[in-house]
Amino acid sequence: MSVDLNTVRRIAHLARIAVSEAEIPRLQGEINAILKFVEALDAVDVDGVEPMTSVVPMRLPMRDDVVADGDIAPLVLANAPLTEDGFFVVPKVIE
Amino acid sequence: MTDLTTLTLAEARDRLKSRAISSREIAAAHLEAIERGAGLNAFVAVTADKALRMAEASDARLARNEAGPLEGLPIGVKDLYATKGVHTQACSHILDGFKPPYESTVTTNLWRDGAVMLGKLNMDEFAMGSSNETSYYGPVASPWLPPNWSRDRARAAALSSEKRGLLTPGGSSGGSASAVAARLCLAATASDTGGSIRQPAAFTGIVGIKPTYGRCSRYGMVAFASSLDQAGPLARTVRDAAIMLRSMAGPDPKDSTCSPSPVPDYEAAVGRSVKGMKIGVPKEYRLEGMSSEIDALWARGAEWLRAAGASIVDVSLPHTPYALPAYYIVAPAEASSNLARYDGVRYGLREPGGDIAELYEKTRARGFGTEVRRRLMIGTYVLSAGYYDAYYVRAQKIRTLIKRDFERAFADGVDAILTPATPSAAFGIGEKSSDNPVEMYLNDIFTVTVNMAGLPGLVAPAGLSSDGLPLGLQLIGRPFDEETLFALGATIEQSAGPMALPEPWWS
Amino acid sequence: MATDRASAKLIKGATGDWEVIVGLEVHAQVTSRSKLFSAASTAFGGEPNSHVSLVDAAMPGMLPVINRECVAQAVRTGLGLKARINRRSTFDRKNYFYPDLPQGYQISQYKSPIVGEGEIHVDLTPDHSIRIGIERLHLEQDAGKSLHDQSPTMSFVDLNRSGVALMEIVSRPDMRSAEEAKAYVSKLRTLLRYIGSSDGDMEKGNLRADVNVSVRRPGAALGTRCEIKNVNSIRFIGQAIETEARRQIALIEDGGVVEQETRLFDPARGETRSLRSKEEAHDYRYFPDPDLLPLELDEALIEALAADLPELPDAKRARFMGDYGLSPYDASILVAERETADFFEDAVNQGGAKRDAKAVANWLMGDVAAQANTQGVAVIDAGLSAASLASLVDLIGEGVISGKIAKDLLVRLFADDRGADPRALVEAHGLRQVTDVGAIDSAVDAVIASNPDKAAQAKTKPGMLGWFVGQVMKSTGGKANPQAVSDALKKRLGV
Ligand SMILES: [Mg+2]
Ligand SMILES: [Zn+2]
User: Fold this and answer.
1) Mean pLDDT in runs of 10 for chain B (507 residues)?
2) What pLDDT does residue C278 have?
3) What residues have CB less than 8 Å from C210, skipping those under 6 apart?
4) Can you list the positions of beta strands (E) in C241-353?
5) ω into residue B172 within 30 of 0, thus cis?
6) In the predicted model, is pLDDT for residue C106 greater than 70?
7) Which of B156, B215, C174, C421 is deepest in the core (most CB within 10 A)?
């Protein structure tokens, strides 16, 4: 499989990465080089093989239902580019 | 008196214990070495004051005989690890100015045991790279001189930010490897998603181990590919690596994938006999066109182990050739999701935009480097509607097959597997073109299988190439059997003889 | 399947009848102290970003660790829905960018949910109930809140809700009218409240529904559905379905086609409108969350949770009908809220004495409910104890007071004599009804004496008897026993 220019635009938008029209052909070339490289996998017979879900043979650990975190708004907001009255602030999101 | 930076971690530990030297002295010596080594660009942040304060506190504990296992030992920390109030950006522009209000579990364990932090180490952006050239903070130079280069020529090249022609220390833990090999720190934390500890270790003639997935907590490690990322140390000897890993590893309720099993005394395994061990040599790692000296090195390694009383057997890991392509589906897929949080809203870089979508797209376009953007797009594509099964699910099935290959070999009584660490010695900065990314990816061909199967892998220096550059061998072990790797690694280290590290041309 | 049930009313279009098909995805906030994957509080409200951990804010390197109680709540709910509990389920990431979604993905259960197929029985009328199929129930994270009214150009983001556990309960498209959908949601809400896995508080947004609506000619194949997102009251759910169904019918009858899309219900305008433009078509790129392992449940845990389940509404209703001889209607009303049902049983069984349950139910659903209503509180908070209600019923049963007096007594118990013992009140205010024959006879004589002509008519018109009874009751201030009075009158008037 290989991607066309429109697919490159679509992926870039899905990934929320601005791309200039100028760089789209280059990106297409690089992405297709990688897709070509991974085509090798088509040769493998994977019928009846379970996809790996967990690397370690372990059970999901669970925590007790206790409140032991939060009340650290200043720390949560400390690195934010823009805040007001304890909120994160972003350009208006139109519903 | 001897230059304190030439001591091994173990030697320094013992001298501190006997009070022959002070932690403040050894910290100061390394801070000075870091300053002189600035041209290598190994450190992206030096925490001198913090280091001296920690060292003084260590001296006080040493005086009270309350020394921890790493008491007073100055180390470097890969920029991937969250260090409270200290520069933590995974060497990405998108985390500009980020200072976490928290500490990673691995570094917390190191400070608990008395280690002293010198600063944060350069790396490929978000650990995506094999040459440290994708770092927002510029490439790192290896302390090894390029073949028949003069010290002056190298010093001159080191002054430029491109460092063209100098050797790469490998990546993504390039800063860690360069700093350890150049004696800017006694040891360093690193991380390994496809070979990021082991390939740099091989390129710089030092020791690195990627432990079993789940051995070290991932809490507070900036995530690249969650099912592959694992913390590990880089050090100058197998013993030093064992000492570091023992402190870094351990259970952590904050990481659901972290193993609850207790950490053994890895150092005790160093020097343990390997007599009677069965070592597998997988034929699939013998690539056609592989340089004869890598082949010879591999054979020599097997010979050393046989001489030490181990038996060498041929094994087959038939799905080996598919590990790297499968990796380049799984890792970018997980990364495309893990890196979605870098959106300019809660921390890091924000590029203004008229609406939220524009803010996202501009911020991420400017904040992520070329290689990261490329992988995020690949990852987004292989997960997108209509391609998920063909790419991601298929790759995860192949991962199961790769794991089975190893399980079969171990079930047949093999204690560990011996392979080359890299297909070649270190290459030059700017040497590999970026328009065909695959060329760079091939660096990880021998190491990536280990991450795909979640196994432990250790790389130890085993000799020099024809033009005098370090080469390493890799040992792959059973899950949670790092001890066997340390025993075997020490045997190789001893058989190969002390690797003379490069003279400090950079200072 | 074309349904002929009464509740599945067809909608008249310009070109004939239409059947509306409804399925719901209900999001119910799980009752737990801390969040699904972090130890921050789930408390409602609070200062912005105060119930937020570094995990909820998706700081680099932060990892999820699941809350055992949230898992238990999902299993309890699954058991209440007679559903299959999956011994192994997995968590997936649903990837999309939004300011109140800090991770850039929601951790949900897409491929294998914790609860599979189940069902719920919904009573539409006392004697008509329908079965609604449950497709699945899964656990997922709630998002934060974006406030858009704080500034003309900016949105403000509060992550307090970010990471709170939700149960998404997905029904089969088994509903055929707004009424059925509303009945389904209230029954589901009752069930959740009985189990204690969600308070179902719709004011607080703790129970919201995504409503899937399509229309078709009766018996025809399913039409294209539209999903109306986040409808947050039972009334609005009904309105949204009616509105959307009519929109689709009008559209099709004008030769248009329904596009599968997400829409929003605007109660003010009484319309639904498209939420996302098609070019923004979502591609969520689901994949298993590599920070978590598959969730495995062992039999022991499931059995323990099953054993601890309270009696659920359907069982309670059946028992009330069987043990107390209540009508299906009364039983349904009483079990709608667990507290009311308990109050009723408490009153019926006060002092071990099993009293007239029907009478208790009538008083409870009648005067007591009315009182509670005027006070705007729940029946159990109206100020009358189960014991008082019990002795009130006893007093009538023993013939100590008449129903009429009992009503007055109840008014006192809700007012000045709040909390007083009814028996004591009867004595204190001399409300005992008169049964002494002598006293009644003289009262009767007096009334007859002062109405000789009417007494004469009574001989031929027995209907007059009632008038006489009324007069005598009036003269005795309602305290005379009506039966005794009418007996005495019959004798005196010779009828
Ligand atoms: Mg939904
Ligand atoms: Zn949902």
Assistant:
1) 88 97 98 98 98 98 97 98 98 98 98 98 98 97 97 96 96 98 98 98 98 98 98 98 98 98 98 98 92 95 98 98 97 98 98 96 98 98 96 98 98 98 96 80 94 98 96 98 98 93 92
2) 46
3) C24, C25, C26, C27, C227, C228, C229, C230, C231
4) 262-266, 271-274, 287-288, 295-296
5) yes
6) yes
7) B215
User: B180, B208, B250: which is closest to B9 by C-alpha?
Assistant: B180
CA-CA distance, B192 to B197, in Å (whole number)?
5
Query: To the nearest whole angstrom, how far is the Cα of C97 from the nearest Cα of chain B?
Result: 7
The end-to-end CA distance of chain A, in Å, is 37
Task: Specify whether the CB–CB gap between B125 and B92 falls below 8 A.
Answer: yes
Strands across the sheet containing C92-95: C105-108, C92-95, C287-288
Dist CA C326 CA C358 (whole Å): 6
The dihedral sign for the CA sequence B320, B323, B326, B328? negative
Dihedral sign from CA coordinates of B254, B257, B260, B263: negative
Among A13, A41, A93, the residue with its CB nearest the CB of B398 is A41
**C89: three-class secondary structure by DSSP:** strand
Q: What is the dihedral of CA C446, C448, C450, C455, to 10 degrees?
A: 180
Q: Which of C28, C32, C51 is nearest to C41 (CA)?
A: C51
Contact between chains at A70 and C151 (C-beta distance less than 8 A): no
Phi/psi of residue B425, nearest 5 degrees: -80, 180
Report yes or no: B195 and B206 within 8 Å, Cβ to Cβ: no
Classify residue C132 as exposed, middle or buried by CB count within 10 Å of its CB (0-12, 13-18, 19+): buried
Assembly ipTM:
0.97
Q: How far apart are CA C237 and CA C211, in angstroms?
A: 7
Encoded amino acid at C88, one letter: R
Q: What is the pLDDT of residues C312-339, one digit of tens each?
A: 999 999 999 999 999 999 999 999 999 9
pLDDT value, residue C145: 96
Side chain identity, residue C357: A
Of B78, B33, B40, the closest CA to residue B197 belongs to B78
CB contact under 8 A, C291 and B257: yes
Q: What is the pLDDT of residues C439-494, one digit of tens each?
A: 888 888 888 888 888 888 887 887 888 888 888 888 887 778 877 888 888 888 87
Active site residue ranges of B: 78, 172, 196
CB B114 within 8 A of CB B69: yes
Let me know the angle formed at the C-alpha of B243 by B240 and B244, rounded to the nearest 5 degrees.
85
Contacts of A58 in chain C (CB under 8 A): 293
Q: Are B325 and A40 in contact (CB under 8 A)?
A: yes
Would you state the structure tokens that stand for residue B106, as one six-digit string? 């691995």
- Which candidate, B232, B166, B168, places its Cα nearest to that of B194? B232
The amino acid that residue B332 corresponds to is P
CA dihedral C53, C59, C62, C63 (to 10 degrees): 80
pLDDT digits (tens, 9 = 90+) for C358-381: 999 999 999 999 988 888 888 888
Ligand 1 centroid to Cα of residue C168, in Å, is 7
- Pairing verdict, β B311-315 and B278-282: parallel
Banded pLDDT at C234 (limits 50, 70, 90): very high
Chain C residues inside the 8 Å CB shell of B380: 285
Q: Nearest Cα to B213, choosing from B461, B455, B376?
A: B455
Would you say the C-alpha torsion C411, C413, C416, C418 has a positive or negative sign? negative
List, as one string, the DSSP characters of C355-405: --HHHHHHHIIIIIHHHHHHHTS-GGGSS--HHHHHHHHHHHHTTSS-HHH
DSSP states of C404-440 as a string?
HHHHHHHHHHHTTTTT--HHHHHHHTT-PPB--HHHH
What is the spatial distance between Cα C208 and Cα C228, in angstroms, rounded to a whole number? 11
Handedness of CA B444, B445, B448, B452 (dihedral sign): positive
